[in-house]
Write a structure and sequence with these properties.
Strand content: 5-15%
Bound molecules: adenosine-5'-diphosphate, zinc ion
CATH topology: Rossmann fold
Number of domains: 1
Helix content: 40-55%
CATH class: Alpha Beta
Strand order of the largest sheet: 2-3-1-4-8
Largest sheet: 5 strands, parallel
Radius of gyration: 16 Å
């Protein structure tokens, strides 16, 4: 299965993808997470990307396409993968179609997680992320057992530098203008499915599983 999880920032793409990874044993490819990991390692590409990320701007299509292309060539992404947060522009979607075409394959489904702006603002304000493994928490809805410490790896939890009110506003604006047009792009291909992301975690996941089970 080759699937793409879409939705505005804070919709729950990462949280839902990580459950799909566990249950379906397929890798998740999150461009945001790849950029954050590269930054934490001190890699040039991560440092360059973080200049844009902090302000809520998109990283350039060229850099982003390149890291995805490299990742798709790794062995574990041969048969199945979940793309989380990529593509985000029509140019990226076209580049992805080409990459998959070169491998003689295509996307099976695009799952779009819907949410209102109020809910998204609240979620990003309360989001905390593990510096070490990337696991995501919410101060009310998914509290770590010990404050500030990751349940999975014991790493330190931090607030992403782009989860400030200003940056969130900019990211939502960019989502509306640059990313939303992709919904038409995939709807025309007949592979777009939507779920209501404002429901509890388990219900959103159950709705996604229903879509995935229908595919297989
Ligand atoms: P995205 O990857 O789309 O930006 P995340 O998965 O990081 O979204 O979720 C954003 C924040 O909202 C996190 O703090 C997460 O724990 C929380 N969250 C995600 N889905 C839900 C949900 N269905 N109900 C309540 N909180 C949620
Ligand atoms: P969220 O799900 O909260 O939007 P992500 O972790 O997916 O956060 O992305 C964080 C940031 O990384 C984005 O706001 C953007 O600056 C950058 N980024 C991630 N994916 C892409 C992409 N496909 N194209 C350009 N920039 C990206
Ligand atoms: Zn961790």
């Amino acid at each position: 299965m080759k699937i793409l999880v879409m939705g505005p920032p804070g919709a729950g793409k990462g949280s839902q993808s990580s459950r799909i990874v566990d249950d379906y044993k397929m890798p998740s490819i999150s461009t945001g997470q790849m950029f954050r990991d590269a930054f934490n390692r001190g890699d040039e590409i991560g440092i360059e990307a973080m200049r844009f990320i902090k302000k809520g701007e998109l990283v350039s299509d060229d850099i982003t396409n390149e890291i995805v292309k490299r990742r798709l060539h790794e062995a574990d992404a041969e048969d199945s993968f979940i793309l989380d947060g990529y593509p985000r522009t029509v140019n990226q979607a076209k580049a992805l179609d080409e990459m998959l075409d070169d491998k003689g394959t295509k996307l099976d489904a695009v799952i779009n997680i819907l949410s209102s702006h109020d809910v998204l603002f609240e979620r990003m304000e309360q989001r905390r992320v593990c510096k070490q493994c990337g696991e995501t928490y919410h101060l009310r809805f998914k509290k770590p057992e010990v404050d500030g410490v990751c349940d999975v790896c014991g790493g330190e939890l931090y607030q992403r530098p782009d989860d400030t009110h200003e940056s969130v506003e900019r990211r939502l604006e960019i989502y509306e203008t640059k990313t939303k047009p992709l919904l038409d792009y995939y709807s025309e291909q007949g592979i777009l499915y939507s779920v209501n992301g404002m429901q509890p975690f388990d219900k959103v996941y159950a709705d996604i599983v229903e879509i995935l089970e229908d595919l297989s």
